[in-house]
Structures are given as C-alpha cells and as structure tokens.
Amino acid sequence: MALTRLVSVDDAEALARLLRANRAFLQPWVPAREDDYFTAQAQRNIIRNELDAYARQAAVPLVIVDGGEMAGRIQLNAVTRGAFLSASVGYWVSQSRNGRGLASAALAEVITIAFGGLGLHRLQAETLLHNVPSQRVLIRNGFRPFAVAPSYLKIAGEWQDHVLFHLLSENFAGAAAT
Prior knowledge:
Blueprint: E1 4-6, H1 12-21, H2 23-26, H3 40-55, E2 60-66, E3 69-80, E4 86-93, H4 102-117, E5 122-128, H5 132-140, E6 144-155, E7 158-168, H6 169-172
Parallel strand pairs: 4-5
Antiparallel strand pairs: 1-2, 2-3, 3-4, 5-7, 6-7
Helix pairs in contact: 1-3
C-alpha cells in the first residue's frame, strides 16, 4: 500500500493543522516561518504553486499518509532535465509518528518515482550535521554522503552547515530501502 500521494489543494486545512501541531518539533530543522505560513490559506497558496511546478514537471509534491491520516510531506524539488537528470528530495514526518519507518518507506516510493517514472539519474538530499535520524533514513535507502557544505541553508534563522547525500540510478537496485 502506498504511503505517499500527490498533494491536493483540499489538503490545505489538514496540512495547516499538522504544521501547527508540529511547529516546535520542526523549528530546528526548517527555515524560519512567519505565523501566516501555518494557516490554511497560506498552505493553499503553497500547494497551488507546488502543483503548478508539478504540471511543468519541475517538482513532485507529495503527502505522507499513515492509517488514512496525513503524517508529513515529501517532495522532489528542482527536477532538472537535459544532461543533469537530477532532483533534490526533502521530507518531514510529524513528531507523533517519528521513528516508525514512515520517512524511510516514503523515500523508497519517491526513489521509484524519480528513477522509474521520471527517468532521473541522480537524487540529492541535505541534512544538518547533527540530524542523525534523517541521515539514517537516507542511508537506509542507499544514499551516500559526498560532501559537507558550509553555511548551505538558512535553517531556524541561521546559516548552517549541511551534509550532502546522493543516490545514482545505477545504484538504486542495490539500495536497501526499508
């Protein structure tokens, strides 16, 4: 049974509730957010933009579902064609469902979409140096670290170093997704 599905504008209210419930939990791992980000209207606008990018084949915005309820988000971003055939992947799972393998399983589905349906060659993901749980999700799915990028992203209001991970399509068959 699939754990991911394409996000819908109809998800805005539930997503806003989930984000509000997880605001403090996610705060150390995401860019600083204004209060309006946590409203249904802001989420509707974000989802519309994501679905527009999806229509242009520039992104694949998904929700993670557990037991029929929204449990988080996972997305392929910056899908690039041509000689690069690459995308970046990002994800989060609500605090109440953390540690149950949902992120690992959702990432496995996204890898199949990226290398199967989209025909991409490479996926990249980034984590804060101290985000060991997220690093484990990536490694379980065959990703390997390849660099540390200083001041890579502004997370929680500060420019922070990140470990860069990648997975190549030719290594996908050997990935140990769980």
